[in-house]
Design a protein that fits this description.
Elements (H helix, E strand, L loop, with lengths): L10 E8 L2 E9 L2 E7 L9 E5 L6 E13 L2 E10 L5 E8 L7 E2 L13 E9 L2 E8 L5 E2 L2 E3 L1 E7 L11 E4 L4 H4 L4 E2 L2 E8 L2 E8 L8 E7 L7 E2 L17 E7 L5 E8 L9 E11 L2 E4 L11
Parallel strand pairs: 12-15
Antiparallel strand pairs: 1-2, 2-3, 3-4, 5-6, 6-7, 7-8, 9-10, 10-13, 11-12, 13-14, 16-17, 17-18, 18-19, 20-21, 21-22, 22-23
């Protein structure tokens, strides 16, 4: 695999590995989501539209950050969109019999939950019969100490992965220097959990997604419930001036050789950051209890 892989005009990439095939979902279509398919993470088929806004949809625009879980023979998609009712961001859930859809909303005209504040970037982590759902309280409406801030929360899902069964608990907020450098608007978003040995690593992004400040960090805990302690070496993936801009909103998938791969987006045009982003991939390794991404690489074979 060499960056760039050629998938542009996307954001927030997520890859599901199912039956030795790879399905890449992303913020990608004005009225829903596309999916790209690969057998090797190198060669990707033309995108297929797998979710389309309908009368059943709760959202009418801003379809963002889809993630798909294979669970009990079904494919469950959590995604963000702007509500027809409140014009605020919410998280929805849709189900399909096949990874290429069509994904149909579970709730007719309603999001998965509504706490009357903006929520985005849902992520599922399952372990020992528990299903943990991480999401963002979005800075578009969340004011903290006079600033717009995105904070990460977590609640447990039921066995269907379609409804919350506990009250959300606070997980983290922007507080490190690289996170607060954006001033009156600050972000901790795009949560993604991976486990190594007995430790849980919560990867997340901070900075403004359409600027070179966007970067990836992580926090570590001995429980999916937290508390999570942010790594001193954050950010672990950031822009390289003149070459790569805004690496962020990542997911993680195992490659054909079982190597952990960080899947993320960067600005397609590094010299003029915007919503036009493209998919990059780089290796993840753990060294002495620390999570490292071997990148960002550009034009380098990450299997070497």
């Amino acid at each position: 695999m060499k960056n760039p892989i050629g998938i542009t005009n996307i954001g927030d990439p997520f890859i599901l590995k199912h039956n030795d095939r790879y399905y890449l979902y992303a913020t990608s279509f004005i009225d829903g989501f596309y999916c790209w398919v690969s057998d090797d993470l190198n060669h990707w088929d033309h995108p297929i539209q797998v979710y389309t806004m309908s009368e059943r949809s709760f959202g009418y625009k801003d379809f963002w950050a889809p993630e798909v879980v294979y669970h009990h023979g079904k494919f469950v998609m959590h995604y963000s969109a702007r509500s027809k009712m409140s014009h605020s961001l919410r998280i929805g859930v849709a189900i399909a019999d096949h990874p290429l859809g069509p994904f149909i909303d579970v709730y007719d005209g309603k999001p998965m939950f509504d706490f009357e504040y903006a929520t985005i970037d849902g992520h599922v982590f399952s372990e020992q019969g528990h299903h943990y759902f991480y999401f963002d309280k979005d800075c578009s409406e969340h004011i903290y100490e006079g600033r717009h801030e995105s904070h990460i929360y977590m609640a447990e899902l039921d066995e269907t992965l379609t409804q919350l069964i506990t009250e959300p608990i606070f997980i983290m907020k922007p507080e490190q220097d690289w996170e607060i450098s954006t001033g009156q608007w600050r972000w901790n978003e795009g949560p993604f959990i991976i486990k190594d040995q007995k430790d849980y690593y919560l990867m997340y992004s901070a900075g403004f997604y359409a600027s070179s400040s966007y970067s990836i960090g992580y926090a570590k805990s001995q429980s999916p419930l937290g508390p999570f302690v942010k790594a001193e070496e954050n950010p672990i993936l950031k822009s390289i001036e003149g070459h790569i801009s805004g690496p962020g909103h990542n997911s993680v998938v195992k490659g054909p050789d079982q190597t952990l791969i960080c899947v993320y987006h960067v600005h397609t045009h590094h010299e003029s950051p915007s919503e036009n982003r493209q998919v990059f991939m780089d290796k993840i390794v753990f060294e002495q209890g620390k999570l490292k991404i071997i990148g960002p690489t550009l034009g380098i074979n990450i299997n070497e």
